[in-house]
Design a protein that fits this description.
The complex is a heterodimer of chains A (77) and B (475). With 77 residues, chain A is an all-alpha fold. Chain A has 2 domains: 1-31, no CATH class; 32-77, no CATH class. Helix content of chain A is 29%, strand content 0%. Chain A is built from 2 helices and no strands. In chain A, 9% of the residues are buried. Chain B has 475 residues and is of the alpha+beta class. Among the domains of chain B are: 2-37 and 419-471, no CATH class; 220-322, no CATH class. Chain B has 16 helices and 16 strands. In chain B, the strands form 5 sheets. Chain B has a 5-stranded antiparallel beta sheet, with helices on one face. Chain B has a 4-stranded mixed beta sheet with strand order 8-7-6-11. In chain B, strand 7 (239-243) and strand 8 form a beta hairpin. Chains A and B meet through helix 1 of A and helix 1 and strand 9 of B.
């Protein structure tokens, strides 16, 4: 993490070569997945998930309350 | 002394916090804009093959992924040392114009129109896109339709609306389908009329915002934008031009490869967002603005008939250069019109359907720089690679960064004009947020960071106690 901050704010600057600390939070060492902290009912793959997948999930919830989209929509790419 | 904090600032992209120091009499002493996030694309991309960079850097932003892909692909073209086929050049510009339509429509209708249509002092619980749909359904529908027009072109060309993988080093991966050209040409007159209507509406409402025009960041600065040799505004490809506050061209014809000669970057101790400046003037005197207002001020003209007519009227009304940052909204709508007209010009060019759309090559240069006009301003991707094409170094200067210093000045001016610390009201603080929104900043992009749409304002005593706090509803 310090290498990143050094790279961006010290080596990557022409002026004020210091790592910002005033009024900005320090960074965590790692980003952890959401499911380590809260129970996740369903994962929708994709960045972003395709609109059809989101629609299928919402329709599932509105219908029988089970948000289980077709397996074909639950994949990347 | 008291301190106000706006945290988070709402209806913009990413996280921002504003602190406002008040003196003993409740007047504004100083202000600071804090960007509290960084993701580190410069570092974690080391070792990746350069041709993955358009896909990786696209994830910097969900609103302007296309601009990042294009800047990235241009840097990759330079590493391969290829000149991309003419049709690919035109298709990339077409894609980018469509991106402008969707991004500018989003900024105006979804993020800023609640302030403009419902009023700066209106009920904050309703001052959002849902409130606009309730009170002005026609305009809300128009905003959705305009955005859809842009998104459908992106989807038609690139198969996906967000993070498509169609732009590749050397060009694009497939030619344009003739049916898409026909369909888009058929829909264009309606979309163009919508852009004209939006502009007419904005101009008719402008009289009600004289106070904002007079106080929303009016200090003269330099302006920067990409133009062609004739001085026409360029969204996809062009050379960098700087104009001074009086309107004289101080430098032009700067190609991407020379950006570092003219643009320096300063680290601010209180923000993860660095502040670029015009190097010959040094920091912080080298302050300049980019984005819609910066582009229209920097360019000689837009280069399409209707947009140029509107630009002429704009300049007669507000001068050239026009300095008030409230006019970013106006400039954005002129550009919306320009992007539509340009889409028409590109589709009328028979070469747009040419099937030769990709050049192939390996690593022929150790570094490459891509420079483009993203909707929010000049975007620069600079990569260095080893002989195998693995990334060894990366620098990204993102649109919102260029406006960092100007944003700070604008926040100070609006705070001084509207905030009375003895009698704090939400509408005062909303104006501070609204001037930030006028720039349509993307803080996620600018620090290449993850975030959600949000803003918060706190009033602190001299010893740091929180006296009052306004937190915007998450929208």
């Amino acid at each position: 993490m310090s290498r990143l901050l050094q790279r961006v704010y010290v080596e990557g600057a022409d002026e004020g070569k210091t790592i910002p600390t005033d009024g900005v939070p320090s960074l965590l060492k790692q980003a952890r997945p959401l499911q380590e902290f809260v129970k996740v009912d369903l994962h929708l793959p994709g960045c972003p998930p395709p609109a059809k997948t989101i629609l299928a999930v919402v329709n599932g919830l509105l219908g029988d309350g089970k948000a289980q989209p077709a397996a074909t929509t639950m994949k990347f790419g | 002394m008291k301190q106000l904090t706006i945290d988070p600032v709402s209806r913009l992209e990413g996280h921002a916090r504003i602190t406002i120091q008040l003196d003993e009499r409740g007047r504004v002493a100083s202000t600071q804009l804090h960007i509290a996030q960084i993701r580190g694309f410069e570092k974690f991309t080391e070792g990746r093959p350069f041709y993955e960079m358009p896909g990786i850097t696209s994830r910097i932003c969900g609103i302007c992924p296309v601009s990042h892909q294009l800047a990235s692909a241009k840097a990759c073209d330079a590493i391969m040392a290829v000149r991309i086929p003419a049709a690919a050049h035109k298709l990339r510009e077409l894609l980018h114009c469509a991106q402008y339509v969707q991004s500018h429509a989003l900024s105006f209708f979804y993020l800023s129109s609640p302030d403009l249509l419902l009023g700066m002092d209106s009920d904050p619980a309703k001052r959002n896109v849902v409130g606009v749909i309730e009170k002005h359904p026609e305009l809300a529908r128009l905003g959705i339709e305009l955005r859809k027009f842009g998104l459908q072109i992106i989807e038609g060309l690139a198969q996906e609306r967000v993070h498509p993988s169609w732009v590749v080093p050397g060009g694009v991966s497939s030619p344009m389908a003739p049916a898409l050209r026909e369909r888009t040409l058929a829909e264009l007159p309606g979309a163009l009329a919508g852009a004209v209507r939006t502009l007419a509406f904005f101009k008719s409402a402008l009289g009600g915002f004289q106070e904002e025009i007079d106080s929303f960041g009016t200090a003269p600065t330099m302006y920067a934008g990409l133009v062609n040799r004739a001085g026409d505004m360029q969204l996809y490809d062009g050379e960098l031009r700087f104009r001074d506050p009086a309107g004289s061209i101080v430098q032009e014809g700067i190609p991407a490869e020379e950006y570092a000669t003219w643009i320096g970057e300063a680290t601010l101790p209180y923000s993860y967002l660095k502040a670029p400046y015009y190097k010959p003037l040094g920091y912080p005197q080298g302050i300049y603005r980019v984005g819609p207002l910066g582009r229209l001020n920097a360019a000689t003209r837009c280069g399409t008939p209707q947009a140029d007519q509107e630009l002429e009227e704009f300049r007669q009304r507000f001068g050239s250069p026009a300095h008030s940052s409230f006019l970013f909204h106006y400039a954005r709508l002129i550009e919306l019109l320009y992007a539509m007209e340009r889409i028409g010009q590109l589709l009328d060019d028979p070469e747009i359907l040419d099937t030769h759309v990709r050049a192939t090559a390996g690593v022929n240069c150790g570094q490459g720089i891509g420079m483009i006009e993203a909707p929010r301003g000049i975007l620069i991707h600079h990569y260095k690679v080893d002989a195998d094409g693995a990334m060894t170094w990366c620098n990204l200067i993102v649109a919102t960064g260029h406006n960092n210093l100007a944003l700070g000045h604008s926040i100070q001016q609006v705070s001084e004009r509207f905030i009375d610390g003895t009698h704090l009201q939400e509408g005062m603080l909303n104006r501070v947020s609204a001037v930030v929104r006028a720039y349509d900043p993307c803080f996620s992009c600018s620090t290449h960071a993850a975030g959600q749409i949000a803003l918060r304002i706190q009033l602190l005593s001299r010893d740091g106690r929180i006296l009052d706090e306004l937190r915007s509803a998450r929208e």
